[in-house]
Amino acid sequence: MVTPRRARVEAVGEGAAVTTLELFFDLVFVFALTRVTDWMADDPTAEVVLRGMLILVVMWWSWVGYSWLGNVAKADEGVIRVGMLVAMAGVFVASITIPEAFDDLPGGLSGPVVFAVAYFVVRIVHLGMFWICSRDDPQLRGQVVRWIPSVVLGTVLLLLASQAEGWLQTVLWAGALLGDYVGTALAGASWRLNSARHFAERHGLIIIVALGESIVSIGIGVAALPVSWPIIAGSVLGLAVAGAMWWAYFDVTSILTERALAEATGERQIRLARGGYTFLHLPMIIGIILMALGLKKALTYIGGGDGHDLADPLYGIPLAALYGGAAVYLFAHVWFKRYLMGTVNVERIAVGVLLLAITPLVAMVPAVVALLVLAVVLCGLVAYETHRFRELRHAVRHGSHAEH
């Protein structure tokens, strides 16, 4: 794929790796995740968390389109480089505006309008870049045309939401996201996937980004408090939780699912990529960010912030986010692996159900104990899977998986 130099585009090859510009793009997404977590932590009510999840889905939709674009054309070459940088500016402005995405603050520009316009810029640049890439590909051009209505519907509803308030505003946001997702699903599967390795790596790195945000939340939660043994213990436990979630994805699941994606062909490969990565990685990100919210509040309790002491229990929305986020992450893993490979991980379903079942019980113990229980359960799952499937793990991780 080579277009005239006025709009030069270089195709991605099968063995392509993620570019440094894509990693740079992800750093802006890190900022967005941090802003969402901090905004929810300031007032962790059910309404705020719901709106935080809606913002998160919008930011995810902003990111995921460029994962497809970067798999068709090299992100750091020609006109695509310029488009990526412009899109980064849009994502960054939207991220800055997150605290005002629903309710405008006094003075300055209208926050909801700025957020909606920034999102529109990100989407229109993405659409324009794909239009250029499809110049010599009529089938891809047709896919882009079928996709336009969902882009228009999503951005128009967000602009309308910027002029509304209360429940109507929330409904319009939900409608914008639903229109985007349904429209994309109905538009067909004539997209292009040039490199399964690149696509899987791109989504694996965004999981790393989200897990990194959970670690940042641990640090931010106690940044203004004097260091103490409880803070050290709580930080280590929080890191153990994040580490177990990393292990659950990257030990063998990411390897097996990437191979399954690479072995698929044609429209089936596109459907696996769209369903398994574009759609099913979102609940993983949601689970991680909810967990990050819980971790941040737990460390504040453990460290004695906001008038709390070490004996205070974590309860309500922060506890539900901590345990529920971990459960959502595990359930999404099971669904992801089922979608790509046709297998069901019963152990992870059982642990997810267990976490939801014991949530009311850990609300009666100090926050540090609740965090300890979560760390023990998740690390216990990892240890069990590592031992039970040790031979398969060795085969998968060291290249002799074919005979299994």
From TrEMBL:
Keywords, ordered alphabetically: Membrane, Transmembrane, Transmembrane helix
InterPro entries found in the cross-reference section: Low_temperature_requirement_A
Keyword Transmembrane helix tagged: yes
Ranges that cross the membrane: 12-36, 48-66, 78-98, 110-132, 144-164, 170-193, 205-225, 231-250, 277-295, 315-332, 364-384
Keyword Transmembrane helix: yes
Protein name, UniProt field: Low temperature requirement protein A
